[in-house]
Amino acid sequence: MGFLDADLPRLKILDFSIRLLLIPFNLASIWIAVNNRQNNIDYGELEFADFIGLKYMVCVCAVSAGYALFAAVSSWLRCLVTKAWIFFVADQVLAYLMVTSLATIVEFLYLAYKGDQVVSWSQACSSYGKFCSRLKIALSLHVIAVGCFLVLAVISAFRVFRRYNPPFVPSKEGEQAAAT
């Protein structure tokens, strides 16, 4: 464990940097999604508030951006740094929430572009191209934020589990010597 201890300050800086890096990506995804609307003469206006999946993504992005800021600031406070389990659990939960919101947007865009003939949903992006294009941009930014949170989940897991010794596994030679 000695050589890992030397890398811990670098790991702390990496953790802090990633947390700060993902905030603008989340905020940009929120801004693009919330301000996304398009009017079509034939079908009417389409806007963010019409879709629960987009609202879910915006809520998850807002929570994760707020948490990332809180965690970045608190990573430099001595009283909270010792609470590695709290950050581990929170990072894991938010990483999973980010993945689920990503899946929601991907499915939404898939249906908007392809439709679903079985349930009589026609594609919408041919009529609302600007709306779909902006959602693809929000999706791209959200993918980057999700990637950042997955890396943070791994870092926080490392921070927690590095404190414990690996389980003892007897070697093959020791087992053979005991058997004879």
UniProtKB/TrEMBL annotation:
Residue intervals passing through the bilayer: 16-34, 54-81, 93-113, 137-158
Topology in the lipid bilayer: Multi-pass membrane protein
Keyword annotations: Cell membrane, Membrane, Transmembrane, Transmembrane helix
Ranges where the Casparian strip membrane protein domain occurs: 10-146
InterPro entries assigned: CASP/CASPL (IPR006459), CASP_dom (IPR006702)
Subcellular location: Cell membrane
Name of this chain's protein: CASP-like protein
